[in-house]
Amino acid sequence: MKAKTYFTALTAGLALATAASAQQKVDPALASYKPVSGVSGNLTSIGSDTLNNLMTYWAEGYRKFYPNVNIQIQGAGSGTAPPALVQGTAQFGPMSRPMRGTEIEGFEKRFGYKPIAIRGAIDALGVFVHKDNPVTCLSLQQLDAIFSSTRAGGAKAAITTWGQAGLKGEWAKRPISKYGRNSASGTYGYFKEVALFGGDYAADVREQPGSSTVIQGVAADINGIGYSGVGYGTADVKAVQVSGPDGKCHPPSGQAAASGNYPIARFLYIYVNRNPNQAMEPLRGEFVRYVYSQQGQADVIRAGFFPLVKAIADQDLKAFGLLK
Amino acid sequence: MHDTPLQPARGAAAQAPATSGRRLLRLTADLSATGEPALWALGGALAFGVILIAGFLFMISLNGIVTFWPKPIERVELASGQVIAGEPTRAGRYRVGQDVLAKLSGEQRAMVQAQDGYADRTLYKTANFDLYGDDFRWVSDYERKNVTAPNDFYLFERQQWGTFVGRIKHLAIDGKPAAFDYRLMQREQSAARKRFAQIRQIERGDIGAVNYQLDQQRLAIRKAVLRHGEDSPQAKAVAARAQSRIAELNKTFAGLQERLKEIRAHDQRYKATLEEVGGRTVDLELSQIVRFYPANELSMIDKIGIYLSRWWEFLSSEPREANTQGGVLPAIFGTVAMTLLMVVFVAPFGVITALYLREYARQGRLTSIVRISVNNLAGVPSIVYGVFGLGFFAYTLGGGIDALFYPERLPNPTFGTGGVLWASLTLALLTVPVVIVATEEALAAVPRSMREGSLACGASKWQTIRNVVLPKALPGIMTGMILAMARGAGEVAPLMLVGVVKLAPALPVDGFFPFLHLERSFMHLGFHIFDVGFQSRNSEAGKPMVFVTTLLLLALIVAMNAGAIYIRNRLKRKYSGPQF
User: Fold this and answer.
1) Cβ(B560)–Cβ(B484) below 8 Å
2) Which of B401, B519, B537 to mutate to test the interface with A (most CBs of A within 10 A)?
3) What CATH number did the domain enclosing A188 receive?
4) What is d(CA B458, CA B266) in angstroms, rounded to the nearest whole number?
5) What does the pLDDT profile of chain A (324 residues) look like in tens digits?
6) Are residues A129 and A93 in the same domain?
7) A324 lies in a domain?
8) How many CB atoms lie within 10 A of CB B116?
9) What is the rounded distance in angstroms from the CA atom of residue B245 to the CA atom of residue B148?
10) Which one of A197, A208, B186, B540 is least enclosed by Cβ atoms within 10 Å?
11) Are A88 and A15 in a shared domain?
């Protein structure tokens, strides 16, 4: 449910922006990053592996301005972020899903205030099949019938062969082999909530340890289907269109994700321990400002995600008390 | 045992006269008695093992060694009218699907049908991610209209955005447009790389030092506030002193910043305009080009030069582009430092434990239990050690150290998170059983006569151990260390919990006091392999790096082991001297 509310905010925020072009461009309204003096120290980021590369790009970019900042990045799954923030072992907790109620509670119990999140990028979750697979479009109900055992989306029967998913000829009898993420991953949780309508995964989904492992699995398996961040796609797999709330099929593009037409798109978050009674020290504050700069959002494109617009950036910077 | 040749079936032969019996017995000797099948089985097992290992090494080396070899660039005109250019990376044959066939022109369909419904396709590395949004593309043979290898296509390795494939349209030298000339561009590019190195030096070295001192001043203020209270005169005095120093440092920083700006402005005046095969152009500062070469015009010597320079970059520089390009120097350094540190911890503990167990402890039920426990420790899954290391070393010990000695840095942990120290301690725990067992065996192998000889000459027990037993056992102990080192250097799973990270550009050693920073996280070749292979955005581009890194890790372990074996052999010679 929470993801839904966030998502409404996303669509509303993006409606303010001019129509996004097909080619990914950073919102020109975002400011170019201007360094300040005296930022140095150690930062640790523990959390989502989807965000692993993006955090690395941001860290590389940030270090260009502040050469003596050390940023260490660990990414084993979104589930590892909240404990790291609570323990204080990390200053940034990148997550590919919003924190759960229990996780926020655990944090609040320790510190007395809630963690706050910045939304650093938009990620469309791609549904990938082998490059020779002729399937072009799947609906959420079909995805649910393929990946879940519960079929909460209302499909009548489970889909186990490509024929049941609408393919003909030699493909009709081919069984579907399913690739997914492991349960520590935020991608796992998000896909479960949106594409599985909160249901449970079928037992024969092969759980993979990383976003690109899913792609490699599908690339090597002609009958495969899997979900992963759309930026991880290679030439060996094909991203299937997914039919959105308007009933039409949409490719996982920045435009479709931003307009909400591509139904499995989400924000990528970075959670931060910010004491509301203190100003944020420059080491972390400047990093947040960097993320919302021209350079930071160009890094988002390099990492294969979709950049944010100024309206959202301003909203988040305000929440951090960083808006000048 | 003696009955085996005399099986009931051969009873008659056994009862035959003794003269012919000898001959018969030789003929009918049971196979299992001759040992022939056992020999074959052993030999076969050895051959199988060797083939597996050789095959594995061959695969790694083959893939690793060819990675850096420059490949040609092909320009491909497609039937659709589109033109692409790229390095062909691999090819495959596949069965063309019905739906694809239906869309093909008659000519193309005939071509596929001539090959029994199969087609060949080639994967081109088209690069130019900033323009295309992807870097690889499959092209089937029926799509291809015309393939050429143009001489004016260059491959650029860029500091950012990965590789670029295309032509050079024109240059801008010192702000003035200049026609493209390969020699000129080469000269200007190497000058630009020097500027880039200079910028790096100012950023990392000079500004780094200023930032470090600024941080120290801030921490000093915070420390004084924590110790004496916010409004105490001591804290105020420290703050005043620190503020004046900070103002000074900020001035230095502004000066450096100014200088950087100058160099950057100068750098901006040297650019190249690159054009991809479709005609779109990209402006690029020459300093952003790590390497460029005309892929189809290279002589063998050029190719070898590029190959070697890529290896050198790989071994001596930091990673770029989220670890998929550039070098692995921090990871090499981290692996070696962590392994050596582990040896420093594991050697005394293992040897002392074994000495006590073997030489001093009364051999009874208790020592047996201790021995069994040690042996069982070797069977605990390594990830369990990782969890222990995280919970005990990092959180409990490290958290305690932070609260006692580094309160001014909190909530940012200093020792309270994974680091080189905790990782090597965890691995030391993991490998200590190996050392104990090997040392015990080595001690047990020292002949009793030697000990007794020493004791009979009036030496005390400790003197005997130190001067007779330990030197004699040293080669055996070293063998244990070598095994422990090999195991430790190859272990990754527990490290992921106690301090190995994807990116830790700061080495654990630098020019700031206390020079050795054991609390820092580090990069590790084993984890690098996992990360690039399974976590990178572009797994296709990351694949060759996986093989190269694996090759390097193997070479590193072989080198460390060879070093240890060399030391062992020297010790052996030194102590094996004259004997009675």
Assistant:
1) no
2) B537
3) 3.40.190.10
4) 81
5) 444 444 444 444 443 333 333 457 788 888 888 888 767 777 888 888 778 888 988 988 898 888 778 788 887 788 889 988 988 878 899 998 889 899 999 999 988 999 988 888 988 889 999 998 989 899 988 999 999 988 888 888 889 899 988 888 888 889 999 999 988 787 888 899 888 888 899 989 999 888 888 999 999 999 999 998 888 888 889 999 998 778 888 988 888 887 888 888 888 999 998 888 888 888 888 999 999 999 999 999 888 888 888 888 888 888 887 776
6) no
7) no
8) 7
9) 65
10) B186
11) yes
CA of B552 vs chain A CAs: smallest distance (Å)? 23
Give yes or no: residues A131 and A260 share one domain: yes
Phi and psi at residue B119, to the nearest 5°: -140, 155
Return the sign of the alpha-carbon dihedral for residues A207, A209, A211, A212: negative
A11 and A80 housed in the same domain: yes
The alpha-carbon gap from B246 to the nearest alpha carbon of chain A, in Å, equals 9
Per-residue burial over B262-275, b if 16 or more Cβ lie within 10 Å, else e, is: eeeeebeebbbbbe
Domain end position, chosen among A245, A265, A285: A265
- Is the CB of B215 less than 8 angstroms away from the CB of A41? yes
Quickly tell me which residue has 């509310």 as its tokens: A5
* Amino acid in position A102: T
Is some CB atom of chain B closer than 8 A to the CB atom of A5?
no
How is residue A39 written in tokens? Answer: 């930022």
* CA distance to A196, A199, B151, B189, B328, per residue, from A248 (Å): 19, 24, 47, 51, 47
The CA–CA distances, whole Å, from B48 to B40, B52, B56, B62 equal 12, 6, 12, 21
Whether residues A109 and A14 share a domain: the answer is yes
Q: End of a domain among A224, A239, A265?
A: A265
Q: Give B146's contacts (C-beta < 8 A, 6+ positions apart).
A: B76, B77
Whole-model pTM?
A: 0.80
* Pairwise CB contact (< 8 Å): B97 & A132: yes
Nearest 5 degrees, angle CA B412-CA A65-CA A309?
Answer: 90
- The answer to whether residues A30 and A126 touch, using CB atoms and an 8 Å cutoff, is no
At B485, which helix (H) or strand (E)? helix B470-490
d(CA B125, CA B294): 16
Identify whether residues A103 and A229 lie together within a single domain. Answer: no
Does this chain's domain B74-150 share its CATH topology with B329-576? no
Segment 187-246 of chain A within 8 Å of chain B by CB: 209-213, 215-216, 231-236
Nearest to A216 by CA among B229, B109, B542, B97: B542
What's the total number of domains in chain A? 2
Give yes or no for a contact between B193 and B287, defined as CB atoms under 8 angstroms apart: yes
> On the CB side of B206, how many CA atoms lie within 13 Å of its CA?
18
Fold adopted by B74-150: SH3 type barrels. (2.30.30)
Q: How far apart are CA B101 and CA B117, in angstroms?
A: 9
CATH architecture of B329-576: Orthogonal Bundle (1.10)
Question: What sections of B69-207 are H helices per DSSP?
Answer: 98-103, 106-114, 129-132, 182-200
| Residue A229 placed within a domain | yes
**Domain shared by A149 and A278, yes or no:** no
Nearest in space to A132 (alpha carbons), one of B438, B100, B383: B100
All residues at 6 or more sequence positions from A296 whose CB lies less than 8 Å from its CB, including other chains = A33, A58, A61, A120, A290
The ipTM value here is 0.75
Contact B415, B406 (CB under 8 A): yes
Cα distances (angstroms) measured from residue B220 to each of B20, B155, B217: 102, 51, 5
Whether residues A155 and A240 fall in one domain: yes
Please report, for chain B, the start and end positions of each structural domain, with discontinuous segments joined by +. Answer: 57-70+299-312, 74-150, 169-295, 329-576
Surface of B (293-332) touching A: CB under 8 A: 320-323
Domain containing A225: what range?
124-265
